[in-house]
# Entry
Amino acid sequence: MEPAIETINLTKRYGSLTAVNKLNLKVERNTVHGFLGPNGAGKTTTIKVLVGLLKADGGTVKVLGQEVRGDRPDVRLRIGYMPELPKFPKHLKGSELLDIYGKMCGMTPKERKEQIPKLLEMVGLKGRERDFVGKYSKGMQQRLGIAQALLNEPELVILDEPSLGLDPVGMVEVRELMKEVAKEGVTVFLSSHLLFEVEQICSHVTIIHRGVSVASDTLENVSNKLSGPTILEVEVAELSDAIVGAIKELPFVSNVWQENKRLIIEIKSRDDVRSQVSQAITKAGGIIVSMNWRGKSLEEVFMQLVTKS
Amino acid sequence: MSSAERRFARNPRWMDRFWAVVKYELLWNIRKKKFLGMLIVAFALSTVTLALPVIFSSFANISIGQNPNFVVGGGGIGGLMFFLFALVTVMNTISGEFESGTIVLLLTKPVSRTMVFLGKLFAAFLTLLATYTVLYVYMAIGGTIVYGPQNNLHLLPINLFGSILSTFVWVSIVLAIGSLSKSSMIVAIGAVAIFLALFIGAPIVSMFSEQAWVLTYVPGNGASGYIKGLGSQTPYTPGMAVSTGTDNIASNLINYILYPSANVTFFNISTLPRTSPQWIELSTEPLSIFLLRSLMVATTYIAVFAFIAWYAFRRAQVLE
# Structure
């Protein structure tokens, strides 16, 4: 199966400024792919080319296996897109807007009748659907933006900063929603400046800086390649061979060293495995005094890449 | 049926999606405060047109004479109204979407840009059709009450068609400016400037140059001619006045239906102080040619400016 998104040498210029420079991007299907970069890196420009709002100056863009060149409503029929801080026509009511967008997507009246209330409830706008969009707060408009992106049950959802303007509860809700959407086999391409958000929901990540991709792989590989393996330091009251043996038997451990009463454990995975390590030490008769991570977070990796390039 | 199956089964029909765009635009048109304001002004002006003779005649203590041609013979919507309705209806149609950022979501829906453009144009047509219908019916009822039974009321749809065609000349000009500039301010200033230039320039050209024929080919009121034998023939009017130009299609259509074999004569008027004007005949042509030319000029303007608007819209990139 062809990738959900593929760009080859994508270039976009604004006058003398090259916003995206020969970008090669591949987003595999059924993944949640994070698109990271500092402000002005070219994230939104890339997304606008993907959805047909901007024309590329060079390179090839394929979305769901189809080349995006010129006006392609047939491609847009299969994708859902939410722009950064979406702007809606203020003269329409929330439900009216979704109904019109649903019609544009070719949804039958029955489908719209089923899907719209479900989505409004999902994004927390139930009860406000008869209000004019002009009366919605920024957070509510953001939620409506997510609802319209999911309306046509797309194969690919492209979200540009979906948490922008949301309160902390809303941000958590959106993250959970994205996880749910991904579980249904939808590919999610998510641009965000919130590294913890990407870290929590993305399986893959591309980091872009000054229009160039500086890293693109699974989240784990990107972190591991740049920061080396994750290290867990555990200090125990009394170190024994039984404890070292128990740690070595754990499937996610690649190596173990001893430094006085401390164990330096090299972890293959980026998952939080502290409880398993703690359980293994306790079972082997050890008493844990302290436990510390010595790995780089995505934020550190990101900063390292951006500063280097 | 699973969501994936529903997706693949979905085969949107062109007409359904087109109507969605029309509904989107139509709701915007009729909920615009500017448009509602314009409608109120139009009704107020129509009411004044109907009520003033009644008020004056009651003050002067004379009865109003019967005028069976009031509605079809000129009691309709005039050039300024065509321009204002066009401006208010489509001023923000394209530029407003770009300025507010709402174009982003509209253009990322599975509708082609051509469909969006046509939908917007059709919504403007429906808005004007509804507005003019209500206004003409209002004038017909009012005219009958004030001036007695009206002749040729069956020609009101022709009046309506001509008025919409005249308005669409301005609609296409306004849309083209909006599509090229993507700024409502430039649309308003540009359109008003063009209208005023023609409104002020036309009489000057007509009065001081012998090239009044030029006015036949510009939007607006055009050049005036007369149908001899119709209307009042006095030293000041050698017959019924008719005008070329894109604003007079409705009256030209009705005149042609009522007087198909009439001829239109153009004059050069020479005036000296304290003397009657001297009418020097320039040319005469059949009313059919006169009408055909104004129809062709109007449709050419509509086609050219609508094409410019469509082309600019299709190629527009959404930067913001």
Observations:
- Chain B has a mean pLDDT of 86.
- Residues 11-315 of chain B form one domain.
- The longest helix of chain B spans residues 113-147.
